[in-house]
Design goal:
The chain has a single domain, classed as Tgt2/MlaC (Nuclear Transport Factor 2, Chain: A). Helices cover about 60% and strands about 15% of the residues. The protein contains 9 helices and 5 strands, in the order αααααααβββββαα. It has helices spanning about 5-30, 35-50, 55, 60-70, 75-85, 85-90, 95-115, 180-190, 195-209; strands spanning about 120-125, 135-145, 150-160, 165-175, 175. Helix 4 (about 60-70) packs across helix 7 (about 95-115), helix 5 (about 75-85) packs across helix 7 and helix 5 (about 75-85) crosses helix 8 (about 180-190).
Length: about 210
């Protein structure tokens, strides 16, 4: 009789149970915009606080942290299409895919620059409240430092109508929205040249950073 077989069956059962509970926990988090920001925000700001002032000045260090903590919760395809605006309809499938790919990297770079304002100050997250059937939610976060005005960071999230999960699609720092700012600049560049040129320009910015 193989004595290892019962042991393996028990081990597989335990692993399946752990994975199932993990998925349930993640689903519960993803299905509340406030829980998403609370979870992601605590992890993100905690990791930034652990960086030295010199490290926070290094773009690649900050971008690596953003990629790990924030980007899995960012609906970068939706954000990319919002930034493209009306040019989504005229772009080819290859152009849309190329734009989304480079925009994901560009967004990580922009988020990293925006969050350099954080230097281990107190962070206050907005309390959870009902969003009803709304597919869009705005969760406010304040970075509080004694003797200074609070820095307001608003995370805009969108609920996927199929999965019910919430993901970030815009970041507003001190009233300045990333999507609206980038959309104005990028659509103007497309109008002056073309989408392929803009994709190339964004790639150069990402690679030089």
């Amino acid at each position: 009789m193989n004595i290892f077989k019962p042991f393996l069956l028990v081990l597989l059962t335990l692993l399946t149970t752990v994975i199932s509970f993990s998925n349930i926990a993640m689903d519960n988090i993803d299905k509340s915009p406030y829980k998403v920001i609370d979870k992601v925000g605590h992890k993100l700001f905690s990791d930034i606080a652990m960086l030295s002032p010199e490290q926070r000045k290094q773009p690649k260090v900050m971008e690596k942290l953003i990629e790990k903590d924030l980007m899995p919760y960012v609906d970068y395809r939706y954000t990319s299409y919002m930034i493209l605006g009306r040019y989504v309809r005229t772009a080819t499938k290859a152009q849309r895919n190329a734009f989304v790919d480079v925009m994901r990297k560009y967004l990580a770079m922009i988020y990293a620059q925006a969050l350099t304002k954080y230097k281990n100050q107190q962070v206050k997250f907005e309390r959870e409240r009902s969003v009803g059937k709304s597919r869009i939610a705005v969760v406010h976060t304040e970075i509080i430092e004694q003797g200074s005005q609070p820095i307001d960071i608003a995370f805009k999230l969108r609920r996927n109508k199929t999965t019910g999960r919430w993901k970030v699609f815009d970041l507003v720092v001190e009233g300045i929205g990333l999507v609206s700012t980038e959309q104005a600049e990028i659509t103007n560049q497309i109008r002056e040249s073309n989408l392929d040129s803009v994709i190339k320009l964004l790639r150069n910015k990402v690679n030089k950073n």
